Amino acid sequence: MSAPTTTPATATPSTKPVRQLGDRIFAGSATGAGVLILIVLAGVAVFLIAQAIPAFTASPEELPGGRNLAVYIGPLVFGTLLSALIALLIATPLAVAVALFITHYAPRRLAQGLGYVVDLLAAVPSIVYGLWGVAVLAPASLPFMTRLQDYLGWIPLFAGPVSATGRTMLVVGVTLAVMILPIITAVSREVFLQTPKLHEEAALALGATRWEMIRMAVLPFGRSGIISGAMLGLGRALGETMAVAIILSGSGIVTFNLISSSNPSSIAANIALQFPDSTGVAVNTLIASGLVLFVITLLVNSIARWIINRRREFSGAN
Amino acid sequence: MKTMRQKRARIAAVGLAAGGAIVLAGCGAANEGSSAGGASSAPSSNVSGTISGAGASTQQAATQAWVAGFTGSNPDATINYDPSGSGAGRTQFIAGGVDWAGSDAYIKGDELGKAQQRCGGDIVEIPVYVSPIAVVYNLPGVDNLQLSPSTLAKIFDKKITTWNDPAIAADNPGVNLPSTAIAPVNRSDKSGTTQNFADYLKAAAGADWPYDVSDSWPVQGGEAAQGTSGVVGAVKAGQGTIGYADESQAQGLGQAKIKVGDQYVGPTPDGAAKLLESSERVSEGGPHAFAYKLNRTVTDSSAYPISLVSYAIACSKYTDAAKSGLVKAYLNYVISPEGQQAAQQAAGSAPLTDAIRQQITPAVSSIA
């Protein structure tokens, strides 16, 4: 490794690339790391499928709840998607706004500090968010939820009756939103910062206001970044366990009512709650629900990839 | 600068002194434990080796006290307990993974046969942990709530939805009940507490409780919270809430009195111990299995019917003599008055009565 790393571009015009030992080691370890990810993923999938099979083949009476496997997992899937969707609906606009403020509005010194604080949110353990949600947010949101029921009760989402403790789907959604805010903000911020300065200046030169410049230059450029950030956040919201387990008053029902004490539980929270005292087929059933979550996450990520790829040519990136 | 440094030195000195004191205190405690234990449990003064158990998390706090007390007088013994849950404990015991199991439900049916197979003979099953389950509620202005079994079942089945329901009023003559909505709180995780509470409702108010008894809560859509602390927290946080929790964890909340016979009885350790005494033994498991069908419909008002009894399940013989000696010595300590007192202090459980102890001591002594 005596030669400086910058030389190859200028020093060797020959057709055959020089391969040094360091190159080969690095290439090998990088490939190994990539392959390892696939092996781990395949291992997880094999484990989930192998352990879930007894639940699929068991007779309905042996399963927890004593009915069909789909009847057991269905409400959990619904609850998982609903809580993640609420979180995403709240967090994405907020994260984009925060990222825009940091990159385009805030004075530089404030922007740095704010960016740091937002990143810090990601470092808080999820169980702390859970405790905060159940001890602070849930009781504090009670008057708000009562008002929602009073004025917007005709919307099925807020039909009530309002939970006595505030441990509702809405509170879970808000808590999850806080948890996924940092990742969406961080990704969006990085993308917004990469908007070509020429685009921005051209827009301003044509007489656009700052908001019009952002709308015409920054947002179209950053769209794929926002989407991938949102999908990363969605992944975290789907798999969030402890916060949901602690906060949500969940049972196996399907309802769109966000403010009552009857809520569908989520897959991950249900596994955390039921696993310790489960035996036999009940464990296999929980693992089967884990397999469903695995598939959902895979689907979500694939869809996100597809959206990003489809948008790539319009975005101006690359 | 100088004062700063001095101050720091002084803090360090205080720290050292405190550390030393803790070390000394630790020694003192250990010595005390060994002398006290040695005096009381004379027959098995010094056993050694390692045994492992697994099972009910309800026994965890008590088991910690037992292990501390036992290893205090038998310093060469190591005892491990994994609070993995009753079902998991029984499964591990049957598979031979652990030497004894803790379980909130006695072993029966299929599992009993497998356990006997594992032991190559009879099993030893004894009640070790008895605890009352309190019906806790949060209803400002109502300090002395009384409930009959059928009212209680209807409340938890969400058939009675407001506190001024005629059924509740009939149980509480002269009490001014508010029209607050009732929010029943149940466990969201599986639990022996749920199983015992549901078992009581089924036995005492079967007509109003149409569900099978299991360790998962059967009624959908109630306020569900994780763990005893979660239930207590939810009952405290809401208004008009009612839940069920181990009595030792239910301090600072209203505790309903339950109708037994023609009187209303609050949860007490004595009442729980009394219930076990008045319950009938299940003869299913062999001569050394002391499982009890709890007498939920007891009419003697000194007993409290919503109680939890947790068992220790072991083999009557082990292939390893050292192991059998250790299991025997440990279980002997657990059911001894000292052991039961230690559990009462640590976990708020009800000490076994002498009558029960006399019944189950031969079973423990039979371990070989």
TrEMBL record, chain A:
UniProt-listed CDD domains: TM_PBP2 (cd06261)
Main location: membrane
Molecular function in Gene Ontology: phosphate transmembrane transporter activity
InterPro entries: MetI-like (IPR000515), MetI-like_sf (IPR035906), Phosphate_PstC (IPR011864), Phosphate_Transport_Permease (IPR051124)
One of the GO biological process terms: phosphate ion transport
Gene Ontology cellular component annotations, sorted alphabetically: plasma membrane
Localization: Cell membrane
Keywords (A to Z) from UniProt: Cell membrane, Membrane, Phosphate transport, Transmembrane, Transmembrane helix, Transport
Membrane topology: Multi-pass membrane protein
Transmembrane stretches, start-end: 25-49, 69-102, 114-138, 168-187, 241-261, 281-304
Pfam families per UniProt: BPD_transp_1
Domain ABC transmembrane type-1: 77-304
PROSITE patterns: ABC_TM1
Task of the protein: Part of the binding-protein-dependent transport system for phosphate; probably responsible for the translocation of the substrate across the membrane.
PANTHER family in the cross-refs: PHOSPHATE TRANSPORT SYSTEM PERMEASE PROTEIN PST (PTHR30425), PHOSPHATE TRANSPORT SYSTEM PERMEASE PROTEIN PSTC (PTHR30425:SF1)
Record family assignment: Belongs to the binding-protein-dependent transport system permease family. CysTW subfamily.
Protein name: Phosphate transport system permease protein
Native source species: Pseudonocardia halophobica
Organism lineage: Bacteria, Bacillati, Actinomycetota, Actinomycetes, Pseudonocardiales
